[in-house]
Structure formats: C-alpha cells, structure tokens
Amino acid sequence: MVASEQTLLTSKQLDTLSINTIRTLAIDAVQQANSGHPGAPMALAPVAYCLWQQFLRLDPANPTWPNRDRFVLSNGHASMLLYAMLYLTEVHGVNPEYESTGEFAVTLDDIKRFRQIDSRTPGHPEYRHTAGVETTTGPLGQGIGNTVGMAIAAHWLAANFNRPGFEIFKYNVYAFCGDGDLMEGVGAEAASLAGHLKLPNLCWTYDNNRITLDGPADWSFTEDVGERFRGYGWNVIHVIDANDLDALAKAYNNFLATTDRPTLIVVNSHIGYGSPHKQDTNEAHGEPLGEEEVRLTKENYGWPEDAKFLVPDGVLENFRQGIGKRGHDLQKKWQASFAEYTKKFPELADQINRMQHRELPDGWDKNLPTFPADAKGMATRDSGGKVLNVLAQSVPWLMGGSADLATSDRTRLKFEGAGDFQPGSYAGRNLHFGVREHAMAGAINGLAVSKIRPYCGTFFNFTDYMKPAVRLAALMEIPTIFIYTHDSIGLGEDGPTHQPIDQLAMLRAVPGLVLLRPADANEVVEAWKVIMQLKHEPAALVLTRQALPTFDRSKYRPASGVAKGAYTLADAPDGKPEVILMGTGSEVALCVTAYEQLQSEGIKARVVSMPSWDIFEKQSDDYKKQVLPPAIKARVSVEAASTFGWSQYVGPTGKMIGMHRFGASAPIKDLLKKFGFTPDKVVEAARAAIAASK
Ligand SMILES: Cc1ncc(C[n+]2csc(CCOP(=O)(O)OP(=O)(O)O)c2C)c(N)n1
Ligand SMILES: [Mg+2]
Hints:
- This protein has 24 helices and 20 strands.
- By secondary structure, it is α/β, with parallel strands linked by helices.
- The chain has 3 domains: 3-331, Thiamin diphosphate (ThDP)-binding fold, Pyr/PP domains (Rossmann fold); 374-549, 3-Layer(aba) Sandwich (Rossmann fold), CATH 3.40.50; 561-693, Rossmann fold (3-Layer(aba) Sandwich), CATH 3.40.50.
- Helix 22 (647-650) links the parallel strand 19 and strand 20 (655-657).
- Helix 7 (185-197) packs across helix 15 (437-449).
- Mean pLDDT is 97; it is low at 1-6.
C-alpha cells in the first residue's frame, strides 16, 4: 500500500499496514545492524498493535504519567518490537528529572542505528536509557518478575492514596513473554507469587511459538503451560492465531473483566511470520533474515521489496488517533482530577509528588536512635530492624518484605498500622515473598521503578539466589534496598551451606551497587542514612546474626564517618601509627581489641573501619590518603570472607586475614578460633606486617 492509495484504506487495511510497518522496521533494523532478533517482533506485531492501539492507557506525550498502564517486553531480545512501538506511537523523551523533553524517545534515525554505540536503541531495552522502557529486560524471566512488583505497587498505591471520587491510581501491568521467560525459575516463582496475591491488574501474554534459540522448544519444554498457570490460580486464555485481532481483543477484554486473579493469554504465533524460508524455525530467532529473504518476506507482505525503513503515510496518524488520543484524554482527565485531589488532600498529593521524584519527606531522619556504648552490644540485624522501623514511620512509602526470613533478618515492620500485603488487603506494608528470593528481588525492582522505596531481606548467602535481579537494579540505576543478615561464619551452627564466603567480593564487583557492612549499631544508623539518600543506586546492607559491641564513641571517633565509606575509628595518640588495621562489620571489633593489645605493648596502631569500599572510592585523594597514608605500608585487613580485593588496600607488604575455604558447622567461638579470627592472630599479623614493611 503506498501513499497515493491512503485515502482508499479501510480500517482493516490500516491495521495491516500498521502491523507490517512494525514488522518491516524490525526486519530492516536487524538487517542493517547485521545483528538482532527479527523473528519475535514479526510474530508479535499484531499482538502489540492490538494491545497498544486499543487497550494500553499510555499518553505518549507524558511517558511518566503515574497512572499509566505499564508494558514490559520480558522477551527483551525482541527489543525492535518495543522500539518500533515507541517510535510509531511517538512516545516522548524524558530528562533525568523525569520530565517530558518534547523530543521523541525513539526516532526513525535511532531505529536505523539499532544496536550501535550510544544509540537510544540498544540490543535489549534499558530502563533510564530509553524513555518508555519501563524496565530493563533481556535476561529472561526478569521482566515478568518485575511486573509482579509493578502490579503490587499499583494496588498498594490505590489502597493508600485513592479516596472516594478520586481514583488516582488504577492501572494495569502488561507483559509479553516467551518460552524462555516461562522456563526460567524466576518466572515460575513470580507467577506463583502473583497467583497467591490474586493480582487482577496483571496480564502476561505468552508468545507460544514452540521455538527457542537452539531449535524446537519441545527439545526441552513440553509441559502444559496453561495447566500450570491454572494451578497457580491464574485466569488462562488461549488465542490460537496471533494474527487474529478480534480474538486478541476478546482476550484482553476478558482480562479486563477478570477481577479476582491475574491473566495469562497464551498466543500461538509463528516466529519469523511471513518469511518463506525461516518462519517457524530457530533461524528466525537471533540473526538477520539476509537480504534476499528480506525481499521475499516483504513481497509476502505486499510491501515494496526494496523499500527500507518505510513508514507509509497514514500509519503515524493511525497511532495518533488510537493510543495517542486515548492516552492524551485519559491523562488530561487524570490531571484535572489530581488538581482537585491536591486541593482536598494536599498532604497525600505532596507525598505522591515526592515519590515521583524520589524525594524524601521532610524530617525523614527524625527519631533515629543513638545507641549507647555497650561491650556486649547487639547484632547489627537487631539494630538494623530497629532503624528500619523508625525510618518506615517517617517515610510512608518505604516498604518491603522477606523471603520467609523476616523473623530472622528482622525486616518486619512492627508498628501499628504497618499491616500485611495480602490478597484483598493491599494497603499493608509488609510483603511476604515466601521462599522465592529471585522473584522477590525482581518484584522489588518492579516496586522501585514504580517509585515506591522498597527493601527485601534474606540471609546473605542467598544473594546467590537473587543476583541477576541485584545486578539489574544496579544497571537500571534504581534505589532498591537489599538487606542481608547472617553475613559470615559468625552465624555459627548452620554451617558452610549458610556461611557466605564469596558474596562480599561478588557484590563489590557490581558497578553502582553500594554495599555497606556496618561494624556496630551506630554504624547501622549511619549506613541507613546513606541508603535513604540514594536516588539512583541500589544498596546492599550486610548485617550480622551475632551480637557486636557498641563502640564507646567518646573514646573512638564518631560513626558519621560511615558517610565517607571508610574512616579512622581509633588512632595512635600522635596520629602516627606504625600499622593500620582495617576491617568491616563484625571484624572491626576484633581490630579494636588487637589495637588495644598492640598499644599496651607499645606498638602504635590505627583502626580503619571500612563499611563501604564503594563510597570510600568516591572520596577525594586527600581524604583517602588521610585515612590510609601511603607512607604507612604495614597494613592488615581482617574480614571473615574471601580476601579477594583487599590487596588494593593492604599493598604488597600487608597481611590479609580472611576465609580461604568454606566454613564449618560449629558454635561461633570455635569457628572464630579455627579460622584465625582472634586478637592474637591480628596482633601477630600486625607485627609481621611491620617487619615486612621495613
Ligand atoms: C537468562 C537468560 N538465559 C539465556 C538467554 C539467551 N537467550 C536469549 S533468547 C533465548 C531463547 C528464548 O526462547 P523464546 O523465549 O522462546 O524466544 P523466541 O525464540 O521464541 O523469540 C535465549 C536462550 C537470555 N537472554 N537470558
Ligand atoms: Mg519461543
């Protein structure tokens, strides 16, 4: 169909023209980049068209409108489908303050530069990189995991902010997913959780094309997916032809009419639809069709064979009249209602506005405790739980939960009115994720992109079970809070299966993730202060099971040094130590005991508490040199974990006390002795370091 024929188009022809525009943009972009995944966009173009054009409540000119429906492309390899939709619907770009810039998020030029350096159209959709991308996808299963958190957020916001006559929050969360998403464990965990929570605003569309990367899906995936989801408590609908717009619309209407559970729409599709030699084969999955096949496919579509990146007249206008107009009207109506709401409920409106900009309420840090010196002290999980409960009373949108370990990790919000988030009572702030660490982390990332301030808790060892989502939080630059307790062999009898050794090194290697392992109760307070002020970085707060002494801050330096990542806690009387002892968390107290012992022997030492390498690395060279003077080469690090990475601080003549094997099941005092975490060993290492540095 060419421009001159435009006036003759029926609405059905306009549908087909628009759908084939999506398809050919994907085909051409992948071909030009000589890289990418054309097959799924070709198959799902009609599904995306139906959903966006008829149902999705999105105002392209206001992509951060808080009450918009969310769309997540969990099969992120099909990114060209999303970029084509963002381009064709003319979604606007946003600046770092989340304001619409008036420019387009994705232009035709961006599509021509698919997968190229610094383009708006990277291989997989990236949150904060391309406006309109609601979350980063590509690692299969993560996107659908996020949508459970987004759907939770929508209900929580509605339950807490809507008032009679003011439906400020009422939106749906849609995802497209493929075989890969539904094979992944995180997808299954997330579906199970969503089924339990009966989230009726959640709709996943499953691209049932029976093909994966290597070949036919039935090489490895033969279960009845629909039956499985019915078992989870989902509403399951089948659409037997991805090209049947009426059947698709019926399915989405069925979703909208279902108010007591989430919906899975199983859509049978043909990967690489229309490609004479590649349709229904894995060859359409992840490589360009090839010039000749592109021509043949276009011929099949009735498309000018040699036209590239063609957007026929009428297509952009078609989207303007559909999603564009609907979204604009809805958004305008909402703005008017929100203006009224702001007059009637100024405090609530203020909260909504602050959340949208990731700002904190005034006085968010009031009532934070100061813990008195105490040799017996308390576990940092306990001080952590106390601080969390104080903060949550000042920050109404700080919420979260644990993977069935709140009892142990102390993440439960216990104050009156905190409540539990359960089916039918969506106002509660305590989430119960069950033993589903990966979906928990994925879901709280979904809460974070919904502008709620979320945390989750589990044992530190089980960060391994959620690492992909932790990594994505960092990549997405979202302020998710991961609380980890039972952080070392110090947890004792549970033994090596539960004792983290390698996790500190692993998380320290994640760019942008701020890891804090505080040494006593007052460092916990300071760590939480740092965390609450993060806007674009996730945090990992690493806490002990065992009690730690609360340092006497009149004798040692103040815990406010935590804000700099590392600070001198105790020093030689003249500020000229012969040796520096450095550590994090529970091992700082050990350094302090060794320091006192060295002092009594006439050896001048300094103790540096280093709760956060990440933050310390951001300090000025002057500050770093002040804390770790280059001239002092006798240095000892003490940390009950892999020593990986410590050599950068102790240098060639330093000594590192750490874990070089897995731990063991035993009472803590025996473990500390067996693995060398005693004052004598630290003193011995200090002497050796002094000798080596001379
Ligand atoms: C966690 C994860 N593992 C592996 C991959 C690599 N990968 C990308 S797509 C894909 C096949 C997915 O098959 P399906 O979801 O059916 O997509 P389709 O080929 O139907 O588009 C694989 C293995 C990935 N992106 N994420
Ligand atoms: Mg597939």
